[in-house]
């Protein structure tokens, strides 16, 4: 039964998995491989394990195995159909008590953050939020490798590496898109382990009366291939019309820097950065974004970055693949025309 | 009587944090300390419901003596009572130790003067962890509603509250029994201008300061550094990314700048992605 267990919370809502779950299985596999040698010497098994809660979600457990889980603990119960804090954290805490995981990773989504703090507090262990680097490393005084959890602090000005020395599981939350999606192996084999669920409807102490689906102006920017982001350099909220036009021409979505969101120019669902979302699109266009560190930490993982700014010394140019010094109100209309011309030419 | 408790934190205004270009150190001087913006909106919501239900608002904060400024600000915004939990023994607390102290303090207040709603901001802008609110809820064994954007109804006869919370995918309308702990988005309430009587009251107001000497007795193993499972193991500066090429559209012209850009995009293999939109 002794094993070093690397746990990942498999997040699903209404049967739809949040892809951060797969990203974290990739991270957990990587961490597990780093302790392989140490574990072998001690004669201990190393396992990557998913924890899945919901109702009628067995199919997701099978998917998790293809993304690298050796085992998936499945808690399937009508009480768990929709995420609610109490029944979820209590069920997880019970299973964690039984298997004693060494590391536990949870996506830093709205659901994951709601859950992670409750689980960590209940287990009396440490939790590091929004990690951008995770590795197993030697810590003075520790008799085995520990999780070194690195996260940006002070708006990204400093990277702080946090360790949790005397408590397990060592917990971290990780934002979507900080790590890549691991390979999907259709032939991977693993085991689904059903666990009893103790939760009751009364114990949930929360009743979801209604789900209201957003009609407009909320956007899922994290998994878009193209993002066109506007910053304070737009000068006014109307500037986002131009940003939208370019995003439309490129088949992308609109992003924004924090000052624009704070000023009420655009809703927070568009915000990129430390206090917004982390993104890694194939193409990121930053228009009129100065490039404060807190913005850069949220988008520097993008494959190809185009920055447009009138200030040749704007820090955004430090992360751009191509930096265009110029007025976005001249450059963007020309860019839209160029894109449309090229599309027509190839059509 | 309706009783709301609001937990507030003083934070450096991170929008103003700068790095000294010569030393690479954080410039702390001149960085103003403010009430965490999410907490300010949470407080505004609590005050709104205080007026609707003819109730009262208690504010709690944990931190050094300088945090009394933030308590006074809360009084100015309409809170009736402010408590600062302050002691050197509490310093160095991570989120676990912080949630312990706040939970013990709120329990003590609740025992004397029962609380209906406990408000937190969704997160503090200096740490961005969003962990303390859920931690306090667990320690007090209360239902929690995070990312609250609207309180629809508070029913003191039925002891229930109906709150809208916004997740990435939708808005959930949740009904929970009182007392409930909620963590708030800015949309929960607008921050109003302080009425003159509150302004005057705040100037004279002396926050209560609670320490490890009382009135709450803390377990020394659960506070400060000792009660914190996580430690900062090392600090470093983020790796500098490799800057690409910079061109000046004013010098070479917009079209030439675009030709260059699309050429680079083609080299990087993303040109087709850039042309992926609708005609």
Offer a quick outline of the entry.
With 347 residues, chain A is an alpha/beta fold.
3D structure, described in words:
- The complex is a heterodimer of chains A (347) and B (279).
- The model of chain A has no long low-confidence stretch (mean pLDDT 94).
- Helices cover 31% and strands 27% of the residues of chain A.
- Chain A is of the alpha/beta class and 347 residues long.
- Chain A has two domains: 3-204, HUPs (Rossmann fold, 3-Layer(aba) Sandwich), CATH 3.40.50.620; 221-346, Rossmann fold.
- Chain A has a seven-stranded parallel β-sheet with strand order 7-11-6-1-4-5-12, with helices on both faces. A five-stranded parallel β-sheet of chain A has the order 15-14-16-17-18.
- Chain A is globular and about 65 Å long.
- Chain B has 279 residues and is an alpha/beta fold.
- In chain B, 30% of the residues lie in helices and 28% in strands.
- In chain B, helix 2 runs antiparallel to helix 5.
- Chain B has a nine-stranded mixed β-sheet with strand order 11-10-9-12-8-1-6-7-13, with helices on both faces. In chain B, strands 2-5 form a two-stranded antiparallel sheet. In chain B, strands 3-4 form a two-stranded antiparallel ribbon.
- Chain B folds into two domains: 3-222, Rossmann fold (3-Layer(aba) Sandwich); 242-279, no CATH class.
- The chains are: A alpha/beta (347), B alpha/beta (279).
- At the A-B interface, helix 3, helix 4, strand 7, strand 9 and strand 10 of A face helix 3, helix 4, strand 9, strand 10 and strand 11 of B.
- Strand 18 (322-325) of chain A pairs parallel with strand 15 (245-248) of chain B.
Helix and strand pattern of chain B: EEEEEHEHEHEHEEEEHEEEHHH
CATH top level of the largest domain in chain B is: Alpha Beta
Q: Note the main sheet of chain A.
A: 7 strands, parallel
- What do we call the CATH topology of the largest domain in chain B? Rossmann fold
Average pLDDT of chain B works out at 91
CATH class of the largest domain in chain A: Alpha Beta
The appropriate CATH architecture of the largest domain in chain A is 3-Layer(aba) Sandwich
CATH architecture title of the largest domain in chain B? 3-Layer(aba) Sandwich
Q: Order of strands across the biggest sheet of chain A? A: 7-11-6-1-4-5-12
């Amino acid at each position: 039964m002794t094993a070093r267990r690397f746990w990942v919370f498999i997040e699903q809502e209404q049967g739809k998995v949040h892809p951060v779950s797969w990203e974290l299985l990739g991270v957990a596999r990587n961490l597990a491989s780093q302790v392989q040698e140490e574990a072998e010497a001690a004669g201990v098994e190393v396992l990557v394990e998913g924890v899945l809660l919901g109702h009628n979600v067995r199919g997701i457990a099978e998917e998790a195995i293809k993304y690298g889980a050796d085992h998936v603990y499945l808690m399937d119960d009508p009480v768990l159909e929709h995420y609610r804090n109490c029944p979820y954290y209590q069920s997880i805490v019970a299973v964690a008590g039984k298997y004693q995981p060494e590391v536990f990773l949870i996506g830093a989504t709205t659901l994951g953050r709601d859950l992670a703090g409750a689980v960590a507090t209940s287990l009396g262990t440490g939790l590091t939020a929004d990690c951008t680097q995770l590795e197993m490393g030697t810590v003075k005084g520790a008799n085995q490798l520990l999780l070194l959890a690195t996260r940006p602090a002070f708006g990204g000005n400093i990277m702080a590496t946090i360790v949790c020395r005397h408590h397990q599981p060592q917990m971290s939350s990780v934002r979507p898109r900080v790590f890549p999606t691991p390979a999907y192996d259709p032939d991977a084999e693993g085991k689904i382990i059903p666990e009893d669920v103790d939760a009751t409807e009364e114990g949930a102490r929360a009743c979801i009366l209604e789900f209201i689906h957003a009609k407009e102006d909320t956007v899922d920017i994290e998994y878009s291939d193209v993002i066109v982001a506007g910053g304070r350099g737009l000068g006014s909220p109307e500037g986002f019309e131009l940003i939208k036009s370019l995003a439309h021409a490129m088949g992308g979505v609109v992003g924004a820097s924090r000052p624009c969101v704070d000023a009420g120019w655009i809703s927070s669902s568009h915000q990129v950065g430390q206090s917004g979302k982390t993104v890694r699109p194939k193409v990121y266009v930053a228009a009129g974004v100065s490039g404060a560190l807190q913005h850069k930490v949220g988008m520097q993982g993008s494959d190809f970055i185009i920055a447009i700014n009138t200030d040749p010394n704007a820090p955004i140019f430090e992360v751009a693949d191509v930096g265009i010094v110029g007025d976005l109100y001249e450059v963007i209309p020309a860019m839209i025309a160029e894109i449309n011309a090229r599309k027509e030419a190839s059509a | 009587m309706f009783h709301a408790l609001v937990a507030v934190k003083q934070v450096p205004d991170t929008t103003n944090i700068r790095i000294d270009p010569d030393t690479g150190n954080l410039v702390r001087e001149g960085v103003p300390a403010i009430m965490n913006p999410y907490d300010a909106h949470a407080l505004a919501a609590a005050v709104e419901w205080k007026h609707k239900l003819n109730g009262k608002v208690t504010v709690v904060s944990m931190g050094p003596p300088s945090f009394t400024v933030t308590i006074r600000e809360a009084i100015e915004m309409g809170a009736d009572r402010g408590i600062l939990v302050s002691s050197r023994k509490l310093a160095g607390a991570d989120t676990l130790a912080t949630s312990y102290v706040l939970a013990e303090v709120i329990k003590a207040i609740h025992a004397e003067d029962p609380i209906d709603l406990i408000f937190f901001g969704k997160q503090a802008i200096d740490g961005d962890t969003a962990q303390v609110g859920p931690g306090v809820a667990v320690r007090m064994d209360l239902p929690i509603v995070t990312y609250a954007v609207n309180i629809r109804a508070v029913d003191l006869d039925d002891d229930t509250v109906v709150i809208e919370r916004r997740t990435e995918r939708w808005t959930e309308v949740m009904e929970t029994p009182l007392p409930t702990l909620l963590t708030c988005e800015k949309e929960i309430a607008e921050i109003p201008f302080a009425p003159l009587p509150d302004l005057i009251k705040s100037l004279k107001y002396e926050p209560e300061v609670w320490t490890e000497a009382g009135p709450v007795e803390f377990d020394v193993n659960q506070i400060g550094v000792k009660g914190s499972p996580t430690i900062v193991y090392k600090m470093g500066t983020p790796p500098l990314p490799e800057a690409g090429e910079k061109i000046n559209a004013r010098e070479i012209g917009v079209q030439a700048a675009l030709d260059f850009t699309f050429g680079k995009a083609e080299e990087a293999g993303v040109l087709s992605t850039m042309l992926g939109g609708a005609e």
